[in-house]
């Protein structure tokens, strides 16, 4: 097939020799790995004694239990390959380990948390409120067509379709690696979950627009105006946010392309930003202005077209 020619058999002294692939380890590296596992110490209950499964002389690992295999693949393997294998190989292996770990965490954390908190509650180390949270909400939920929070009135999409107003737009802002990231969407369901001791939590189930890639899902121009492509949705299974995390926006369709909508953030009614220090009345105040970077020389105005070919000309009699 003509691919991976560096792995094709090489004829040497009348024999075909297979070159070692990039993910293989030398015998010395295998022995070093076995000695590392032999001397490995972990907290009590983290795993069984993996050192008993190691045979240094034969460079073999055998007899590990299922849980030990999970620990090895998810916790230990990334530490091993990052030092012993080439960068492009270790990156792929570590990414796979982390992905699997996140998936297992998503599937198993709720059950583990319930068991752990139940045990701590029996020992008197946590309160009844924590036990209620660990056991999860009741199986029934209450749905609302609208909800007031953070000074805003939110309605679901179906409610807005019959009105002249638009109050289903949602924005949630997160700090990711010291950078603020905004997620824009529309509220499709408002759900209230109840817990056993009377606690309640309200969630917004939203259709989120794709803000993961600038240019395809969203744009930000030189005036800091954000537009989102309403035809591109964010690829996520986690569509719920706490109602208290949401602020309100509304979307305006583009004049030339309706698939691109401008995002307009608003403030709650009756909310006033009072200055901390009083300013003299006669002091000069610079009102909202936008600085636009203008490239080119100072005589660029002479090169700007004063007429527009797209518009109809005016006939003067």
From TrEMBL:
One Pfam family matching this protein: DUF4216
At the top level of its lineage, which domain of life is listed? Eukaryota
Question: Residues in domain DUF4216?
Answer: 192-263
- Chain spans, region Disordered: 288-317
Q: Please give the InterPro entries that the UniProt record associates with this protein.
A: DUF4216 (IPR025312)
PANTHER family, alphabetized: DUF4218 DOMAIN-CONTAINING PROTEIN-RELATED (PTHR48258), OS02G0543900 PROTEIN (PTHR48258:SF15)
Protein name as catalogued: DUF4216 domain-containing protein
Q: Please name the source species.
A: Dipteronia dyeriana
Show the taxonomic lineage: Eukaryota, Viridiplantae, Streptophyta, Embryophyta, Tracheophyta
